[in-house]
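Retry 2 of 3 after timeout on previous attempt. Resubmitting structure tokens to design endpoint.
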């Protein structure tokens, strides 16, 4: 009996030690692997985040917890009116139903989008499209919809700001099968690793080194050998006479000063 009781107590202690991961655990573990999080680390104390919709906004600004609209410091009156207007409204999305990993992935998508420079966005994408994209991401409540937001983020990216070895077509093909937060994070991580967060340095074209005198000498030797072989084939007596040799029209040929003139029997003029 005591032995059985001790084993049961040990199992209970192990179960208590295994606690479920929280939102902070997922975000802290996954953000360490993203380049975007390192780019935003210097401005981390200047921004805060809504714990429901995961949208970041500057410290000191206002954020409605019902409609999730952000207001600047100078828009305090508008924020107060919005808060009174939304007091009796039901929540648009039940954010409490989202798992901790799901909310962490959504926050990391916001981080990647904030870290991308404006120069890296395609020229046909208007700056006014960003609020619409952010508004859609805030109220995303399924893994499929979250994968679509990652795809939209990649399509807005200028291909010159992506690494040349990034196969974005196969990356897009894998997105429909991502139905868990972990798979979505892996796709986001692969996209993050292939984004240039700073202007990419264009590699200069490789120029062929100048020819040395040994290389030039070998090239001249090859030309001399080719010329001698052509003259030997031309002066071979076993070749049948061509009809054009008996014509009065001379055959155009290149004169090589280092080669002797042709024999008299191969003259182009008829006697």
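Retry 2 succeeded. Sequence:
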């Amino acid at each position: 009996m005591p032995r059985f009781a001790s084993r049961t107590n040990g199992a209970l202690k192990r179960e208590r030690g295994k606690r479920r991961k929280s939102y902070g655990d997922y975000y802290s573990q996954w953000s360490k692997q993203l380049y975007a999080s390192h780019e935003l680390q210097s401005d981390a104390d200047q921004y805060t985040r809504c714990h429901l919709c995961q949208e970041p906004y500057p410290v000191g600004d206002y954020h409605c917890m019902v409609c999730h609209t952000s207001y600047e410091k100078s828009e305090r009156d508008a924020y107060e009116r919005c808060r009174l207007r939304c007091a009796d409204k039901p929540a648009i999305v039940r954010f409490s139903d989202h798992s901790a990993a799901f909310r962490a992935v959504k926050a990391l998508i916001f981080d990647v989008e904030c870290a991308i420079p404006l120069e890296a966005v395609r020229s046909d994408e208007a700056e006014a499209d960003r609020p619409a994209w952010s508004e859609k991401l805030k109220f995303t409540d399924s893994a499929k919809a979250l994968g679509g937001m990652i795809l939209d983020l990649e399509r807005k990216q200028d291909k010159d700001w992506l690494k040349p070895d990034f196969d974005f077509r196969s990356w897009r093909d894998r997105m429909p099968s991502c139905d868990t937060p972990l798979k979505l994070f892996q796709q986001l991580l692969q996209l993050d690793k292939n984004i240039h967060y700073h202007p990419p340095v264009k590699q200069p074209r490789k120029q062929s080194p100048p020819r040395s005198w040994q290389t030039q000498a070998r090239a001249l030797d090859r030309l001399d050998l080719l010329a001698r072989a052509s003259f030997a084939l031309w002066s071979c007596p076993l070749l049948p006479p061509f009809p054009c040799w008996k014509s009065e029209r001379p055959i155009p040929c290149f004169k090589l000063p280092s080669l002797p003139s042709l024999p008299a029997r191969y003259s182009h003029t008829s006697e």
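Attempt log closed. The mean pLDDT is 79.
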